[in-house]
Amino acid sequence: MDLVKLLNQLPGAAAQGLIWGLMAIGVYITYRILDIADLTVDGSMATGGAVAVVLIMNGWNCWAAVLAAFAAGMIAGLVTGVFHTTMGIPAILAGILTQLGLYSVNLRIMGGANLPASARKYTLALSSVNVGRASFSNPIFIMLLVTAAVICLMYIFFGTEFGCSLRAIGANGQMARAQGISTGYGKVVGLMLSNGMVAMSGGLLSQYQGFADINQGRGAIVIGLAAVIIGEVIFGKVFRNFALKLLAVTIGAILYYLVIQAVLWLGLNTDDLKLFTALVVAVFLAVPYWKNRVKAAGHRRGGKADA
Amino acid sequence: MLKLDHVSKTFNPGAVTEKKALTDLCLELQPGDFCTVIGGNGAGKSTMLNTVAGTFLPDSGSIRVGEKDVTRLKEHRRARYLGRVFQDPMMGTAATMSIEENLALARRRGQRRTLRWGISNREREEYRRALAGLELGLEDRMSSKVGLLSGGQRQALTLLMATLQKPEVLLLDEHTAALDPVTASRVLKLTDQMVRENRLTTLMVTHNMNDALAYGNRLVMMDNGRVILDIAGEKKKKTTVADLMEMFVKASGHALSNDRMLLG
What ipTM was assigned to the predicted interfaces of this complex? Predict the structure, then answer.
């Protein structure tokens, strides 16, 4: 129980939280805006890492590799979208199918299960090596800039006519169709955008940790949901503006990683981490449901008292 | 303006639950017709409206709106010709979006959604005036979420949304059925006013016989998926609810069974 050890690990946790925050914004697009639980992300997170690292090894610029990861994620989203809309497969299942298929695709891209890309050998966009440095190469600083740019772009996009139509699809599909909006097309575009964001986050994560791994997206959806929900629970009442809501998601991801770091420090076995996460997210997802039940029970009692 | 030509629709064909919803239905509305539709449970009123709207495609027959054959057109593609208000006040609006955002979505019905900003300030003025016309005070709450409005307010807003971009045909599917009587009559008066002002061709399904007689210039009665009675103009004006009941029995050969039908 060495407090200094914990404090030393917090900057790293914050950097990871910021990287996963981008991923969580991707999840927010599908889960909150389009009202789809998209499990493709577990695969596209690894795809983003694989594409970025392979391209960097082939001499690509590190930021161009991140954009390429974004494009690869969009293709993954397109596949899920086509499965869902033109083939009529339920969204959850469509996501699982793509995710499964991506496992093979990712192995093909990397030519193995793990691919190192050391910061000493290549110029990377960001690296965990610099996490303690007070310089512009500090990953926390870089990720703050990236996050700010992404939130700005998202805010503008979802304020446009087309962005509004995507929000309408998630809010009320029947209404959207009655207003001449193609719900199928909108969902496909939303899934592409979401997975592009997730893969971009994967591309940044691989550079940060210095390797791409076939398992780096395992459970990503759960971490993304955790970030979304933590952000909503804490800031839901205060943050009404769309840009602030996205900021809340990012802060949710950072808090998630800080908490994980703290429970590991308290002695939780790393092997048990996923179980711990799953249970915590399950409880958080149940909170709104329980709240409603308590409210409904209150109404019933109130009704009787009146009579 | 609207022409249904020998339209048939069977749900679950071949199954135990098979239901012939529309059988060889024919109906033609002239421009400016305000036609009310009544009929018993399962007569096919809503199915008719939904086939026009494109919620599902008919098995046979054709549907024309204006000059356009829309029979096989997807729901969102034919939306440009149609304004719709649903029975459920929740259905016609996006609860998590603001009043002005909902209006802006409706304003662009049938147009390409571009990457231009979703609402312009010029539009806001237009919406403010239009909302003021509803006399519900909504013009002062334009950035409120629609989910905060009452059922009646939401139906009035949906009505406004349906007519903001003038539709070739306005489809009203029992749009006052879920409202309390006072609100229902306010929304109906508003409907009548909008239909008159914009001279809209309108098809209004209702379960209230008095309303069916009081509003519009034409009334059709449906039974077993077809039109069994069609009265208009002076003849409609002179008809009473009692006449209507009698006509129904004569035309259908059985008594009107509808626990929801309001007679008086």
Answer: 0.91
